[in-house]
Specification:
The protein has 457 residues and is of the alpha+beta class. It contains eleven helices and 17 strands. The protein is globular and about 75 Å long. The relative contact order is 0.14.
Length: 457
């Protein structure tokens, strides 16, 4: 293992610890205890999750980071400290400094005083976006059209500040909105001293990061589709490990005797995940061309990245994730069962619709009725030849005012006693939520100033 020896003749071993905020912790523990890894890397952010953390920060100003952070660190950090495994993650989300302070408290509580915790700042570019007023990709209008409804703007920053944090000796690096694949590229640059313009090596690192950003998806998660694609012991799915050489050779594997599978097929499927143009995969660090990539099985659950991966100079503009207030969503479900379940669900939908339109005079931007098991996924269809014995009526609406959203919830809450016979309702715990719409734009790279703050526990 490398363990920061910074020797080019060693393998660097990276483990992917998560694909979402509330990820299962057992695979991460297994990576640390059995994976012999130098780094464990946690990805907590998608576009929607970033906005969810912004929403949380709006209601709880001291928070806005991945709420799973404390549990995760308490479970893995002592063993990471014992083995010299460093931790990188974008769990800082909308509040990296808050997550840093939390991590320092956890370290002290665990008896890990002296650990260095870095916070990477600079992705919050709201003020710069307001000043620049760029074109919004989805609307082709200026950002200023959103007015005060624009409440968040986060740029996808590159690996550079993470590398800086590692060079300062950080044991834990916490970021906000960084390119997912950049989380994995950073330790490669740090370990091997890859140059900022060695585009081919950087592209190879980004490719591995892309394969690993969804953790278990490359080891059989989301891949399983019996009887055509069988994944052994999926219930104890192991997460991926990358073995990287200084010259860019890479092998994908997983902890020994863990569940799941690593094969050319699992790698190929993940390679195509969220990919538009394989010849121009744009990241903040490099534009990767993996149109000639291949995967070669070189052992049990060991796949080498083959073919040719090329890199092109990094883009001059960085993508920015925008969050815009767009009203409120009300959502709930009522279940019907037994003979005539579908017909009673249809009647309930008709009753609710008429009450909202004719009695309460609902003002809604959108209102929809889905019959779970009949039309929820594929749109309006006819009932199956054999009448269903269980149907869920899902009602969802979008309004500008919270009071209007409550009208929808009120009708859902009272339909049991004022409509056809149901078996009970399964309303979401947060039945009314404020909508933060996702949009995107671009900002010149030079307008994004990053900062690394390192604190000792």
């Amino acid at each position: 293992m490398l363990k920061d020896s910074n020797r080019a003749d060693h393998l660097l071993r990276l483990g992917a610890g998560s694909a979402c905020p509330g990820e299962r912790i057992e695979p991460a523990i297994e990576l640390v205890e059995k994976g012999n890894i130098d780094y464990i890397i946690f990805d907590s952010l998608s576009e929607s999750e970033m906005l969810a953390f912004e929403r949380h920060k709006m209601s709880q100003p001291g928070e806005g980071y991945d709420t799973y952070t404390e549990r995760r660190l308490r479970r893995i950090w002592p063993e990471c400290a014992r083995r010299g495994t460093r931790i990188i993650g974008n769990m800082g989300a909308a509040n990296p400094r808050g997550a840093q302070e939390l991590a320092i408290e956890v370290a002290r509580d665990l008896g890990l005083g002296g650990r260095k915790v870095a916070a990477v700042l600079g992705d919050n570019v709201l003020s710069s976006i307001r000043e620049l007023d760029p074109i919004v990709n989805e609307t082709q209008e200026r950002v200023s059209v959103f007015g005060d409804r624009l409440i968040a703007a986060h740029a996808y920053i590159a690996a550079d500040p993470i590398v800086e944090a590692l060079q300062q000796g950080a044991d834990l690096v916490i970021t906000g909105r960084v390119g997912d694949a950049s989380l994995f590229l950073a330790p490669m640059i740090h370990a091997f001293g890859w140059k900022a313009d060695d585009w081919d090596l950087l592209a190879k690192g980004i490719v591995l990061g892309h394969l690993f950003e969804c953790a278990g998806q490359v080891t059989g998660g989301y891949f399983a589709d019996p009887p055509y694609k069988v994944v052994p012991e999926l219930h104890r799915l192991g997460f991926p490990i990358g073995e990287i050489s200084a010259d860019g050779r890479m092998v994908i594997t997983k902890p020994p005797n863990s569940g799941g599978v690593v094969s050319p097929a699992t790698c190929a499927e993940q390679m195509l995940y969220e990919t538009d143009d394989p010849a121009n995969y744009i990241e903040a660090d490099v534009v990767a061309d993996f149109s000639d990539i291949g995967f070669e099985q070189v052992g049990l659950d060991r796949v080498a990245i083959a073919g040719t991966v090329r890199g092109k100079p990094k883009p001059e503009m960085l993508k920015v994730n925008l969050g815009v207030r767009e009203g409120f969503r009300a959502e709930g479900t009522v279940f019907y069962a037994g003979p005539g379940a579908y017909e009673r669900a249809e009647l309930a939908a008709d009753v609710i619709r008429k009450r909202l339109e004719q009695v309460t005079h609902l003002k809604a931007d959108a209102l929809r009725f889905d019959f779970i098991g009949i039309s929820a996924l594929y749109g309006p269809t006819t009932a199956a030849d054999k009448p269903p014995w269980e149907v869920g009526l899902r009602v969802a609406g979008r309004t500008q005012e919270r009071a209007e959203a409550w009208k929808i919830m009120h009708e859902l809450e009272t339909i049991d006693n004022n409509g056809p016979a149901a078996i009970g309702r399964g309303l979401r715990s947060e039945a009314i939520t404020e909508i933060l719409g996702y949009y995107s734009t671009f900002i010149p790279r030079e307008m994004v100033d990053t900062e690394v703050i390192v604190k000792e526990a």
